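Reviewer 2 asked us to include a model.

Predict the structure of this chain.
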Amino acid sequence: MLLHVWREMMAASGCGIICGMLRSKNFLILLLFFVAASIAVWLVTIPTPNIRSIMAKTHKHINRIKNMEVIGQHPPEKKHDPTEVHKAYLELLGFTDHSHLYVMKSEVNSGAGRETTATPDHLPTIVSGVTSSNYHNAIHLINSVQRYLSGQEVMIFDLGLGSYDLVQLKKHCNHRTHCHIKSFDFDKFPHHLKDTHMQAFRPIAIQMALNDYGSVIWTDSSESFITDNISSVLQQARNTGITAWTIKSREPTSALTHPTMFQYFHTKQENYYFQHMVSSDHLVLYNTARIHKQLMLPWVRCALSTECMWPRGAQNTGCRRNRKPLYRYSGCHRCGTSALNVLLGLMFDYSAEPYTSYHEVFGVDSSQEDIANMTEH
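Predicted model (structure tokens):
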């Protein structure tokens, strides 16, 4: 009986506690709702920064914290400025305020600020480059000069000859009093110049020769002189600063130049649809102010940069010869030759006529084989 009364009392007291708790919870909910409503009214009526402004400031502070250097952490390495790197190379190659430049005879008195002289009447120095894979061709070239342009100075760049090949070449070179062999120091320049297939070395070698001699006939050793009648070629070069010959396929520059290269030189591919590409294998150059600044300087800069010489996606095989129209990009890129033609287009209003020669000066002469054999014996 007492146990039953005790259970009823406990049940009654428990209900009171629970009911009280429920009433207290309802009160708290009402209180929180009232506070929230008051804050909302306050935000609307009181001029305070909006949420977007608060978030922006918060984001700014977070970024500031992210960029703070951690104690003991090494500061990030400074990237090399390619402009400064190229500047050192350019000074080494004679691109300074004291460059000795030629001017056209009609412009001798306008050599403002530079040491200038008229383009010379004498024959330019003949310059070429040779590797172990083509040193026999260099011997044929030397012999052709002896045959057609006797007494003319020849300078051959050693692009990596083996010791035996160098000795053999010197034997032929020493038969001439005006023949020199000069080692091309690849270690002074970016590593990619050692890839002679890319021919990035070519504008560098030509610029070196222009510094030393003022005027040059650059010829690839794959072909030699086949005539001594070059007066018209030289006169054309004196008038324009350069003479060149179109490539055998006579394709336009746009067909053999990766589209990215046009962007590098701030021009458009369509400007070159009808400009016949000239070869960089054979060039006659005078170191005039215009050639120095508008051709050799940007050409050398391009040669020093793989991004310019060999844009991403470029290749030199698998050309699409059956494409139509022919001025469309063939899929083959000519590296230094492409850069040369883009620059010539900018200089001569996209016309190749002012500097193109149709006079045959270079070729393969079968008699050179006999001359080379006689010299070896």
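The beta strands are 101-103, 116-118, 125-130, 154-158, 179-183, 215-219, 224-225, 242-246, 278-286, 362-363. Residues 51-56, 65-83, 109-114 have pLDDT under 50 and may be disordered. We have added this to the supplementary material.
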